[in-house]
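Can't attach files on this board, so I'm pasting raw text. These are the components:
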Amino acid sequence: MNNELLRQNYFELFALKQDYQVDKHELQNTLRRLQKQYHPDNFAAEDAEMINQALVISSQINQAYTTLSEPLSRAIYLLQLHGINIDLVHDTKFSSEFLMAQIELREQIAEAESNSDFDVLERIEQNLAKESSALDQQIGELFSAEQYQKIKELIKQLAFYNKLEQMVANILSSM
Amino acid sequence: MAYSNKVVDHYENPRNVGALDKDDAQVGTGMVGAPACGDVMKLQIKVGADGIIQDAKFKTYGCGSAIASSSLVTEWLKGKNLDQAQAIKNSDIAEELELPPVKIHCSVLAEDAIKAAVADYRSKNSK
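---
Top answer:
Structure tokens for the assembled complex are below.
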């Protein structure tokens, strides 16, 4: 087995160009190929160390796929590879405009939820998806322009929109 | 994950929910957000001529720990001067509410909200 795999970053592991834009189909195809190739069952006849290594590589492959498949985690990871760490837990500063807009959105969602207003919630969900994909696009452009510091702000905002999308989806599915 | 009794108490009976007039020169407003969990916190203080915090209000959209953290600090803030307010540490909040490690960031948010509110009050009153 190839120990090199564990030293590769996620893009290298998936034989992808180190770039924010990734081809989802290619990612999925590579995932299936790698999962097959390094499935621990393939190493059942080998010694314990080999089996253990296959397990480590398998989990690395899954981790890489999860990270690269979502815009938010992919952006955070790619930024890290450029030497910029982003701390979503301790970085709590935002423009007050952004936070006010967030509070307003939360209020709209809470109101629609208490009124069981499916239509409003669906509209909010669509708007959130639009905001997310606009941010996704801007992040892509900034990566191409190598403006890494600016990406940080957008990643923080994208994290908010992802959370809200999840929240609205949960409300809708429980209605 | 089980919340401590103190968190549940603040969550079910939050103290000082509401808003103060943000345009009032005596009022400092701090707004912060936690991207990791999507929580938003608005904390306001009203400071008397003697420099003592007379009133504090909050509005938090987030989990139980975030609501409890902000509710608790509004209680703590009243009667303190600004330096004492700024000395409140997230570890004090986490300890009082017995927050588990995964919820420490909620207390960080509350500490940052206090700092932002004090900074807003000071910038309003330095002119």
